[in-house]
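User: Sequence in, structure out. Go.
Assistant: Echoing your sequence, followed by the C-alpha cells.
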Amino acid sequence: MTSTEHATGPLDLDRAQVRRTFERAAATYDGAAVLQREVGQRMGERLGFVRMQPASILDAGCGTGAALGELHARYPDARLIGLDLALNMTLLARHRAGAAVRSARSLLGRVLGPLAPAREPRPWCVCGDIESLPIKSGSIDLIWSNLTLQWVGDPQKAFAEFRRVLRVGGLLSFTTFGPDTLKELRTAFVAADRATHVGRFIDMHDIGDILVHAGFADPVMDMETLTVTYGDAISLMRDLKAIGAHNVTAGRPRGMMGRQRWQRMLAALEATRRDGRLPASFEVVYGHAWKPEPRMTDDGSAIIRVQPRARR
C-alpha cells in the first residue's frame, strides 16, 4: 500500500479499496448514476454564471466521462483532460470521448461536406490520483470535480494539488457530499451494531477553511439536500453498489453481518419510510474558488509588486 493509500483511523478511507471498488463498478456505474448526473447538471448551471473561456480543463474524477461531452459543448475550443483513480473508469471515458468525436465528425461531414474539419480534438483520459496529479504545474484554467472529493483521503493534499496545476486566475469548481448524506442509513446501522458502515463526510464550512488554507481566494460555498426514494432497502443497497459507493473506511466490518443485526438495521430503516417510500438523503455541497497571484516565492521570500508611476 502506498503512502496515499494508507489509512490510520476507523473513519479514514482505505485508498486501495476505493480504487478496487470503482474498478468493479465501472460497468454498472452509468445505469445507476442518476444523482451524479443531476448534480453535474446543477453544477453546470452555476458555472454558467462565471465568465471565462478556459484554454484547458481538467475533469478531476471523471468516472466514465459523462461530463467531458458537456464541458466540450460549453467550451468547444478548450483542451480537455479527464482523470480518474480507476483504470476501468478511465478506459470507458476514453471510449465515450472517442465515440462522441466520431459522431460529431460524421454529423459535420453530412452538413458541411468537404468544408467539415478534418479533426475534432479528443479529450485526454488519464488514470491518476487527485492527491498526486500527473499534470504540469500552472497548466490548467478550469478544474471541474463532481462528487469525487468525498473519496479522497486527504482533502488538504487534493486542494494543494489543484492549486498547483491551476494557472493564476484559474477556477476550481467542485461538488462533494456533506455530513447529512445517507443519514437514514447511518442511523439504521447504529441500531444494528457499533461498527463503521457509512463513511464520514466533511462539513461545508470546514471545506471552505481547507480551501483558504490551501491558498485559494474568494471561495463561494452553498449546499442543498437532495432526496432519492426507494421501495425497499435492497434497491437502495443495489444502487449504492452499482456506483461504487461501498463502505471503504478502515474500520469497516470485514465479515458478513449476522441475520439478527441485519434485521435490526432493516427495522430501523423502515421507521424512516414516508408515503410508502424509503428516503436516502444526500447533502450536496457546491464550491468554487480562484487561484490568486502568489505572495511568496518557492523559497519563502515575499513578492512585492511595484506599479510604475504614470507620466504626467
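User: And one key feature?
Assistant: The CA atoms of residues 101 and 210 lie 38 Å apart.
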